[in-house]
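Take a minute with the sequence and C-alpha cells given here and flag any C-alpha cell that looks odd. Thanks in advance.
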Amino acid sequence: MNIGKDYLIPLFSVMLLIPSFANAQNDPDRVSRGEYVFHLSGCASCHTDSKNGGEPLAGGLKMETPFGIFYTPNISSDSQYGIGGWSEEDFIRAMTEGNSPAGDHYYPAFPYASYSQMSKEDLIDLKTYLDTQPAVAVPSKTHDLSFPFNQRLLLGFWKFFNFSQEPLKQQENRSNSWNRGAYIVNGPGHCVECHTPRNLMGGLDSDAGMVGNDNGPEGEAVPGLLATPQSDFSSWGVEDIVFSLETGMKPDGDFIGGSMGHVIDNTTSKLTPEDLKAIAEYLKNP
C-alpha cells in the first residue's frame, strides 16, 4: 500500500503530540499539588480501612449512622472497582454534584456538600494524584440502610432541601489568610460536616454553625469550634490551635482522641504552617 506524503505529515504530527498528552497526565507539579489536596481533603482517613488491614484507598471503612451503616467506596486507580476509569468530568461531577458517572445520587455520608466548594484546579490535581496510586481490585461493599433511607431515588429530594451547591465567595474585607482558612474549613477539610449539628433529614444545620454535634461519627460527641461559653475552644488562641492541629496535643497537655486523631494523623499534621495558621484565624473569627 502506498501512503502519500499528504497523509504521512499529519500522521507524524499526531504521533509527536502523544508524548505531550502523557506528560500532561503525569505532570510532577500537578501530582505533587494533588498529593497535598489529598491530605487536605482527608481521603486516607475514610477510604482506607486501616483497622482491619485494608489496602490503601480500597474503601470498606464501616460508618455507623442513625440512618444505617455506610461503607466507604474504593477510590483507587483500579478501572473496574475504583475510579481509574473515570474522566476528570466524572470526578468533578461526583465531588461537586454528588452524582456518579452513571447519574446515580450519592449519599451525603460522602461530603460532596463541602467538596462542592473546592476549586476546579484542586479537583483536577487531586484526580491526577489518585490516578498515580496503586490499583486495588476490591469491590466496594453495599450499604446496610433501613427503609426509606435505602431508596436512592429519594436523595434527589434530600438535595433539593439540603444541598445548595453555591460556590464559596471571597470576603473582600478579610485577609487572604482568613479566606484561605474559610476555604479549607468549609471545602476540602470539610470540618463543618462533623462539627455542625444535623436536621432530621441529615442535612447540616447551617444556621447553628460549628457549635458541635452530639451525634457525630460512630455516635461520638463532637465539640464545638465556635467561641461559646460552653466550649473549651473559646480560650484557645491562634497558636494553640496551630499547635494542636500539628501535634494532636491540647493546650492543657491532654491529647485529642476519637476520630479527630485520624484527622490529625492523615490531614492536619501534613499541612503547611501557613495553612494551619489560616485555619486558626478563620476558626477564631468565622
Summary: The first helix runs from residue 5 to 25. The longest strand covers residues 62-65.
